[in-house]
């Protein structure tokens, strides 16, 4: 099996098992860890220990464009290729499913959807002020010149 075929297999599996179910739930922002995808495919005969291929396959621009996804952030080591990588996606508005899910949303699903959309919202602002502790000092101060 050629390298490209394996990458297509990775993308198809990630789409059907991890990404599409999130979209069906009505989520616009969601995160996908690499490790469970690797474990699934390795159990199905995929060569073991290829985290780089998994990470790169799911970051491919053509795949993201075709599926209407934006890769917002990559959590993990600086290389962006490891079993610890978590990819954070946003579904573009015009790519939402035409018919919403008929399943009723539980309170836990609602809480996950609402809080998931706020994840990382202030990340850059907090970093620009020197971290969480400095950010909290700025928030509690009466000085408007902090930011």
The termini sit apart by 54 Å
Q: What's the shape?
A: globular
Please describe the biggest sheet, giving its number of strands, its sense, and whether it closes into a barrel: 3 strands, antiparallel
Number of H/I helices: 7
The main sheet orders its strands as 1-3-2
Low-confidence stretches: 95-102
**CATH fold title of the domain at 3-103:** Ribosomal Protein S8, Chain: A, domain 1
Per-chain topology:
Layout: H1 3-24, E1 29-33, H2 34-43, H3 51-59, H4 61-67, E2 69-75, E3 86-91, H5 107-118, H6 123-128, H7 132-140
Antiparallel strand pairs: 1-3, 2-3
Helix pairs in contact: 1-3
Question: What do these coordinates show?
Answer:
The chain has a domain at 3-103: Ribosomal Protein S8, Chain: A, domain 1. 51% of the residues lie in helices and 12% in strands. It has 7 helices and 3 strands; from the N terminus they run H-E-H-H-H-E-E-H-H-H. It has a 3-stranded antiparallel β-sheet with strand order 1-3-2. The longest helix is centred in the first third of the chain and has 22 residues, at 3-24. Mean pLDDT is 81; it is low at 95-102.
Which keywords apply here?
147 residues, alpha+beta, Ribosomal Protein S8, Chain: A, domain 1, three-stranded antiparallel β-sheet, 7 helices
Short description:
The chain is of the alpha+beta class.
